[in-house]
């Protein structure tokens, strides 16, 4: 890889490292990216292994690997044992501990959460900022403040910033509509890149969580992740790929009506939306306001509302799993039990019996891990 002045990156003592923006321009679609993808998928491959896999000469691969070692993207991991004469092969892998991603989740109730995460998924630092009802420009300023705090605490190079927001987000990192943050058409990616001078990815929070579940924890090719927090949203994976839709609204189940007129009013201004029943603040409030004998009924009602929305999607998409995240522990069993019962009343028995309806094992960190994966993909070109 070459720096913008044409000099070989990392060549010679004191040569400057490429910036993350320069890495992003150099890597995706290049031979460097092809090698990184192989290491990401298989790990611990030698230069000869890589050369055979990509159809390049060993000398070319050795030169490319040398550049990426100097940039801190690849590291030698171990020498293989050999029988007989000859030099032992040296295995390589992505240097996942050498870089940090600033990961931010804007979806929780009452606070914004962030972390510094390395490319192996290890969380090094956590920060949060109370929202204090901030909306619009005030919410943007709190987001930037949280990112600044995390950057100041980084003890190694930062690859980029990943931000996950509730609402509709396009592929250019614009928040087209977020009722919970009062953002409409906000160019969030551009705002953050201008402020930090770091490559930035902005995505819907549920989509990012679904990608993390797919990449790190799930075995299914067709799944939906339902994220319950300040709002309710879903990320849909079919044939292993994220479904966004032409208007980037795929998975926006929170504003599907599940009741008639007179239901609870939603932040979008309509009545009877799923989010008005199932969002965590609304659900907690309803449980706390109910007599003890009625509390399980409140939770079962929420589970049935979820099933009303899920049934046509599970039936039409052939989903293997529905993974739920964001519920507090006492709510999980009654809600999911009610959801399964209500699905059984709406779908063929074999569809419900084969559906894995479960809670994500990762919990609140799933969105942050998704933010890290988005940055790694955008900057390094690995999927």
Rg, Cα atoms, Å: 23 Å
In the CATH hierarchy, the architecture of the largest domain is 2-Layer Sandwich
- Name the shape in a single word: globular
How many strand segments?
A: 16
Per CATH, the superfamily of the largest domain is: ATPase, nucleotide binding domain
Class per helix and strand makeup? alpha/beta
Q: What does the largest sheet look like?
A: 5 strands, mixed
Protein name: ROK family transcriptional regulator
Pfam families: MarR_2 (PF12802), ROK (PF00480)
Family: Belongs to the ROK (NagC/XylR) family.
Q: How would you portray this structure in words?
A:
The structure is a single chain. The protein has helices spanning 20-26, 31-42, 47-54, 58-70, 137-152, 188-196, 205-217, 274-278, 280-289, 292-317, 329-344, 349-354, 365-380; strands at residues 45-46, 74-79, 90-94, 99-105, 111-118, 123-130, 157-165, 168-169, 175-178, 183-186, 200-204, 223-228, 232-238, 241-243, 321-325, 356-359. The protein is of the alpha/beta class and 383 residues long. Strands 6-5-4-7-11 form a five-stranded mixed β-sheet, with helices on both faces. A hairpin with a 4-residue loop joins strand 5 (111-118) and strand 6. It folds into three domains: 20-94, Arc Repressor Mutant, subunit A (Orthogonal Bundle); 99-209 and 366-380, Nucleotidyltransferase, domain 5 (2-Layer Sandwich); 218-361, Nucleotidyltransferase, domain 5 (2-Layer Sandwich), CATH 3.30.420.40. The chain starts with 19 loop residues before the first helix and ends with a helix.
